[in-house]
Amino acid sequence: MFPTTRLRRLRYHPAVRELVRETRLSPANLILPLFVRPGKAIREPIAAMPGQAQLSPDVLVDEIREVAKLGLGGVLLFGIPSTKDALGSDAMSDSGIIAEAVRAAKQAAPDLLLITDLCCCEYTDHGHCGALSESTGRIDVDNDATLELIARQALVHARAGADMIAPSGMMDGMVRAIRQALDGDGFQHVPIMSYSAKYASGFYGPFREAAESAPQFGDRRSYQMDPAAAAGQAMREIELDLAEGADLVMVKPALPYLDVIRDARERFPGVPLAAYNVSGEYSMVKAAAERGWFDEQRIALECLTSIRRAGASIILTYWAKDAARWLA
Ligand code: PBG
């Protein structure tokens, strides 16, 4: 008790503060999401995400070379095709935008970990994460029909040279479908990082401009998790993904779901746990910093530290490049 115990003694000397720090950020645990679109010499700024842009494959190559020098854990690629259709055909073609981007990036920096986001919503004209059907009496994403599309996409990614595949569509059985497709085609060594506990979140708003993937009608609540669902439901999602063969699991978004990250860390101690610090979490800080309301670097590092402290060992973040420089 006071006065014998004074916790301020641990804070008085800056070197003691440094010594007793337990949560450390390293660029090696950060993954940078990047958006690729067809064309040449394009760096199209994303208005809702200051500092981020859609890149054509040649510009992606420059970006990848720069990123490779920063010691980041890797990059996560999203493809935005020029033509979209009901099934997202571009994603299932070896000459589609994601395949082209992966080949170009892999050639530019063979040692940089290249992860592909696997979903239909950037490729479909309706913007939903799968094939639509009305078989249940109302229009909805048909889970099992979508699994076939997902399996085909996984092979496109793997053949192009993706090092890791990250399915984000929240379809039941998606990990199993991808694992079977990969294993059947000689890609047993390619790991799956599943967006296991992905919530139907308003924080994806800016991303939908970045990926041009806003649903043209309705929303994603019939497949993404309800924010108010029991955290135990997220644990069931993770458990099922692991049983289906997921190698790494993810909670998304990060900051409003730190409790879920903590639960996952405690419940699955041996499983690599990632968290996605999503577009809205990034953009709201950017917007406030632009107004001079606070210091971007300080807030960004505080956010990333809190995600790490909650228990995520890997963070997907649009600040990855900045953070690597700040931490250097
Ligand atoms: C695609 C996908 C989304 C994000 C990652 N993959 C959007 C969505 O589900 O609507 C969001 C990323 C972000 O907001 O930064 N399924």
What is the element layout, followed by pairings?
Blueprint: H1 14-19, E1 30-36, E2 43-45, E3 53-55, H2 57-69, E4 74-79, H3 97-108, E5 114-118, E6 132-133, E7 140-141, H4 143-160, E8 164-167, H5 174-183, E9 193-198, H6 205-210, H7 231-244, E10 248-252, H8 258-267, E11 273-277, H9 279-290, H10 296-310, E12 314-317, H11 320-327
Parallel strand pairs: 1-3, 1-4, 1-12, 4-5, 5-8, 9-10, 10-11, 11-12
Antiparallel strand pairs: 2-3, 6-7
Helix pairs in contact: 2-3, 3-4, 4-5, 7-8
The chain binds ligand PBG.
Describe the structure.
It is a single chain. The protein has 328 residues and is an alpha/beta fold. The chain has a single domain, classed as Alpha-Beta Barrel (TIM Barrel). The chain is built from eleven helices and twelve strands. The strands form two sheets. Strands 1, 2, 3, 4, 5, 8, 9, 10, 11 and 12 form a ten-stranded mixed sheet that branches. Strands 6-7 form a two-stranded antiparallel ribbon. Strand 6 and strand 7 form a beta hairpin. Helix 4 packs across helix 5 and helix 7 packs across helix 8. It starts with 13 loop residues before the first helix and ends with a helix. The site of ligand PBG has 11 residues, from loops.
